[in-house]
Amino acid sequence: MAPIVIIGSGLAGYTLARELRKFDREMPLAVVTADDGSFYSKPMLSNALASGKGARDLALKPAAAMAAELNAAVHAAIGVQAIDLARRRLRTAAGEIAWSKLALATGADPIRLPLAGEGAAAVLSVNDLRDYARFRTAIEGSKRVAILGAGLIGCEFANDLALGGHSVDIADIAPQALGRLLPEQAATGLRDALAALGVRWHLGKKAVAVHRAGDALQLAFEDGSAIETDVVLSAVGLAPRTALARSAGLTVARGIAVDRYLRSSHPDVYALGDCAEVEGQVLPFVMPIMHAARALASTLSGSEKAVVYPPMPVVVKTPALPTVVCPPAPGAAGAWQIESEAGGTLARYVDADGRLVGYALTGAAAAHKNRLLKEMQTA
Question: Of 2, 117, 155, 255, which has the fewest CB atoms closer than 10 Å, so is most exposed?
């Protein structure tokens, strides 16, 4: 019998494999990946510097150990060139791999801004262990780092780099930090806390070019201003990795389109994690991956289970100002209600009926996370 095959060895792929093994220890199972198959925690990439961890320290288990743990074949460093839906085969550089059911956990690619200038090719992104290793090499002996993007990952890197002794600039076309997650008052508090560490903010400014300036780089903005730096790190967001699915003829929108059972337009092909669009939602956080993996493992084991997303708080790793966000559902109507606390902000997102449907907490107010989560769950 052909195995269940998972494409991707990130958190989504390996979590699905582990959940499958809770149902059946012996079913044929394979993981196919373009990287080396090591298991690591991707969220650790944005706060490993201050703790002194390099790429090797973050790799918790090599591919061979994962294969033994999962009782699965792990085909590492080969990548998938094409999916043959009719023949149920994957085409790889190492030959064909048969599958009975297929789960796509291909992740996402960093969005690249259309920057001009002879230094644009030097702009780095960190999306996996190899990227992180290149970034660590680039900043060795370099003091200044400019970050493009003041979202969650940009702010986490800014905090980590500042704690690691680097001079940090952070730029975003948006007028505030974490513009998609925080109300203005909470965002201002985070901005100020990072500024107290020495982070310089360039908000409401559009980066247009990166030029060479001797051994340094010059990041130029649309308004004619510029800053000099040694390294430019882009953290402007991720785009679901869909090329493989699209070329196979699967339905793709922003991500690989799947239903609540994580089933794609082919009845035996599924998707989860950063590459998937679940009934119109792309949810690039850890908790949605965990819920999706558990539901899909049940379905693939013969007991169909729709994924249900409860309220899922996101912890932003900015120790300068601890921040927790439980975003309201996309399109949810409501308004922020702001309460100030000593050293922090408590923001409640309330709908027209007065029900709590989201919250944002910073500083000391983060202690209210569980209380507000319980309120949302019982509303």
Answer: 2
pLDDT at 379 over 70: no
Q: What is the SS3 assignment for 248? A: helix
Give the torsion through C-alpha atoms of 115, 121, 122, 126, to 10 deg. 80
Amino acid at 198: G
User: Does 224 share its domain with 249?
Assistant: no
73 vs 344: CA distance, rounded Å: 49
Residue 151 resides in a domain: yes
Rounded average pLDDT over 89-102: 96
Element (H, E) at 145: strand 144-148
pLDDT (mean) for 112-138: 96
Across the beta sheet with 4-7, the strand order is 73-75, 29-32, 4-7, 101-104, 269-271
CA distances for 160 relative to 34, 45, 47, 90, 218, angstroms: 28, 10, 5, 40, 22
Residue 265 CA: distances (Å) to CA of 151, 253, 260: 32, 12, 12
d(CA 244, CA 228): 39
